[in-house]
Amino acid sequence: MYKLFASLSFLLILSCNSSQHISSDKVPEAAKSAFAKLWPGATITEWEKQGSHYEASGKKEGKSVSATFKSNGTLLESEVEVIHEDLPQIALSYMKQHYPGVDIREISRLTKADGSVQYEVEADDKHLFFSADGKFLKEKNED
Predict the structure, then answer these.
(1) Is residue 142 within 8 Å of 127, Cβ to Cβ?
(2) CA distance 94 to 100
(3) Quick one: which of 143, 101, 109, 107 has its CA closest to 125?
(4) How confident is the model at residue 120 (pLDDT cuts 50, 70, 90)?
(5) Mind listing the pLDDT tens digit for each residue in 37-80?
(6) Measured on CA atoms in the order 36, 39, 43, 45, is the torsion positive or negative?
(7) CB 76 within 8 A of CB 52
(8) Alpha helix ranges (H) inside the chain
(9) 3-state class (DSSP) for residue 139
(10) Which CATH number belongs to the domain containing residue 108 in this structure?
């Protein structure tokens, strides 16, 4: 009985934390309008539902952009692809010292709803996070 309960609990946790690709007709108009206002002229390539939130990913002027919204259109976080030179020098120095030879796949600037900024560096099988001024925050392994 315990094994059954543990298995069901695990499956429930997985289903709550996973995201689903959805068609744009399943996205609330408020979220669609908020994305269009945030990234005017961007082309949306996909929508995902993450719990009760909606994330749009797309392209604007050749750069990857995304944003996560509540169903009422409230922005939770936005992300835009940036170039190597946009990453603060302190972060680049930290990476050279602690992650020599790492293959950087993408660098993004994340902006939270409160306006705070972080950088995310996708390198090899890791995601490295830095503050707006380049201080190392955390490492997260790809799942």
Answers:
(1) yes
(2) 9
(3) 143
(4) very high
(5) 999 999 999 999 999 999 999 999 999 999 999 999 999 999 99
(6) negative
(7) no
(8) 2-17, 29-38, 89-98
(9) strand
(10) 3.10.450.360
Residue position matching structure tokens 């945030």:
38
Q: How many domains does the chain have?
A: 1
The CA distances from residue 44 to 36, 57, 65, 124, in Å, are 9, 6, 9, 26
Q: Copy the structure tokens of residue 120.
A: 């995310």
User: 45-83 in b/e burial notation, b at 16+ Cβ within 10 A?
Assistant: eebbbeeebbbbbbeeeeebbbbbbbeebebebbbbbbe
Q: What is the DSSP letter of 101?
A: T
Place of tokens 């409160």: 114
Counting beta carbons within 10 angstroms of the beta carbon of residue 4, is it exposed (0 to 12), middle (13 to 18) or buried (19 or more)? exposed
Confirm whether 115 is domain-assigned: yes
pTM: 0.79
How many percent of the chain have pLDDT more than 90? 79
